[in-house]
Specification:
By secondary structure, this protein is an alpha/beta fold. Helix content is 34%, strand content 20%.
Length: 550
């Protein structure tokens, strides 16, 4: 799949979503539960979709919220439910729908005052802070966001009392119950008018900004950033943290400039992503074209996606730092500059993240904890404080507080961004230069993700492969050392396969929404070696998948 010729160019009128039509479809259209694409479906980050294709409508949110009410009652969760929204157009209507159900069921709800947006990490931190020391009356939360997805999308995810993404058993229970409500025409769903919900005794306002910003010094060395007088630039990409950065700069005395304070549900200020669509992805060089163009005005600059759980780091030395590079730098820095962390705190990575992380962790003498794709696999480790840092190749990360206290069990783009300033302040060099140093010590990585065609039957087959399905013994001229279908850290299925040699590897996973599968590949022997790995990966996987079509 090639790069669109308009990638990196400013969005034009033809690229903008028609917001009135989107909202009308949310309220006017009804999903048909007999159509798979119109049912409630929780992926790695909740239920997502667009009202244009009846995948994210009022009925979905009413049904999911009632299912969450019943789930929390069954689990004995009777404390407050913290709820936050991002700036996507469908988030406001979905919040209204959720509040109508929550108030009708008497659930105590904590929302931001004055309709303020709330980042995912602020919700996670609020849950954890409220639940600290409690054994009863525990809180949980909902975040209304489709993350960095295009403007026409909506998203809705549930965070249990541990503060992080719900596990598969929890989401399956909620999904099943919600679809039963859809099938029954919402029979059993309680609801009151929004005006009554907002005035209900069970609905409370919570100062998410004040709490989150006030606690940042416990996880980031804000004094070091302040004293360095570094010039910092941040682009919230029109997202939920847009009104957090000003208070962060003011409270901690930072020389911080918000380069774009605008919020617009069409996200017309974005440059187009690789496929010519608007997508608020801070790891994309196309979506980040504007901030990269400002790199020489700042000592370090950064951005976050729409719910601020992902980060993008722009350095003077190299521009936008690829996520795998920055994760490696974070690990290298944190485990050498957090004396309050346990000496046995492990490093968390996904099976499709760079092996540079393995090499850095090995030099640090830290155990590696490798999990499938999805931040939910890190929750127990962060909550239990035996993971110091957890990161994903898709630019998501969180880590313990400076005293090893749990900070957030969900991805936190804000602290990941601020950490780049701390690193620059204390190391006297930026993360791009530090990564160059890591390559001199550990070898240079060439990493890429590509897509290959696969029909539904083939994708299903890919998700069920076993090591025995790979019959070859070499990968790009090297002996294959391991073939994995479960993650080494937790033993959970990776939903595909990973083939590894000494200096390279590939992983193949099916897409959940498109007729493609994803090939992640990395080489420590250069671009030509990477091409060989990718070609052989497609040949190996293609041979297996073609059997599914016979």
């Amino acid at each position: 799949m090639g790069v669109n010729p308009n990638a990196g160019q400013p969005a034009q009128a033809a690229n903008l979503v028609n917001v009135p039509r989107l909202i009308t479809a949310y309220y006017a259209d009804r999903p048909d539960p007999a159509v798979p694409g119109q049912r409630v479906s929780f992926g790695t980050s909740g239920h997502r979709g667009s009202s244009f294709n009846r995948a994210f409508n009022e009925w979905h949110i009413l049904a999911i919220t009632q299912a969450i009410v019943q789930y929390r009652a069954g689990q004995g969760i009777d404390g407050p439910l913290f709820i936050g929204i991002d700036t996507h157009a469908l988030s406001e209507p979905a919040l209204a729908s959720a509040l109508e159900v929550l108030a009708a069921n008497g659930v105590p709800v904590m929302i931001a005052p004055d309709g303020e947006y709330t980042p995912t990490p602020a919700v996670s931190h609020a849950i954890l802070k409220y639940n600290a020391g409690r054994k009863t009356g525990r809180a949980d939360g909902i975040v209304v966001t489709p993350s960095h997805n295009p403007p026409e999308d909506g998203g809705f995810k549930y965070n249990p009392p541990h503060g992080g993404p719900a596990d598969s058993a929890t989401t399956q229970a909620i999904e099943t119950q919600a679809n039963e409500f859809l099938q029954a025409g919402l029979n059993g769903v309680k609801r009151v008018l929004l005006e009554r919900a907002l005035r209900a005794d069970s609905t409370h306002r919570h100062d998410f900004i004040g709490e989150y910003v006030g606690d940042l010094g416990s996880v980031i060395d804000m004094e070091a950033i302040r004293d360095s007088k570094l010039k910092l630039g941040v682009d919230p990409l029109g997202g939920a943290g847009v009104h957090y950065w000003g208070p962060i700069g003011e409270r901690y005395g930072l020389n911080l400039t918000v380069v774009n304070p605008d919020v617009d549900p069409t996200f017309r200020f974005m440059t187009l992503d690789w496929d010519g669509r608007i997508r608020m992805d801070p790891s994309s060089p196309y979506a980040m074209r504007r901030l990269v163009g400002l790199k020489d005005k700042f000592d370090i600059a950064f951005a976050c996606d729409t719910d601020h759980d992902r980060h993008g780091i722009v350095t003077r030395s190299v521009g936008l730092l690829p996520p795998n590079h920055y994760l490696s730098v974070c690990i290298h820095y944190l485990y050498g500059n957090r004396p309050g962390w346990p000496p046995n705190a492990s490093v968390g990575k996904t099976v499709v993240s760079s092996s540079m992380i393995d090499r850095v962790a090995r030099k640090l003498g830290r155990k590696l904890y490798e999990v499938p794709v999805g931040f939910k696999w890190y929750v127990d480790g962060l909550f239990g404080k035996w993971l110091g840092f957890a990161g994903e190749e898709s630019a998501g990360a969180s880590f313990l507080g400076r005293d090893a206290s749990v900070w957030s069990t969900d991805k936190d783009g804000i602290i990941a961004a601020l950490l780049s300033a701390e690193i620059t302040a204390r190391a006297k060099t930026d993360p791009g230069e530090i990564y160059a140093q890591l390559t001199r010590e550990n070898g240079e990585s060439t990493y890429e993700r590509i897509d290959a065609p696969a029909n539904a039957e083939q994708r299903a087959r890919l998700g069920k492969l076993s090591p025995n399905d790979i019959s070859v013994s070499d990968l790009a001229g090297e002996r294959i050392d391991q073939v994995l279908t479960t993650a080494p850290g937790d033993g959970k299925p990776i939903g595909g396969i990973k083939v590894m040699s000494e200096n390279g590897w590939f992983a193949a996973r099916p897409s959940g929404t498109e007729d493609v599968y994803k090939i992640y590949a990395e080489s420590f022997q250069g671009a030509e070696h990477l091409r060989r790995i990718q070609q052989e990966a497609q040949a190996m996987v293609g041979t297996v998948l073609n059997k599914a079509s016979v």
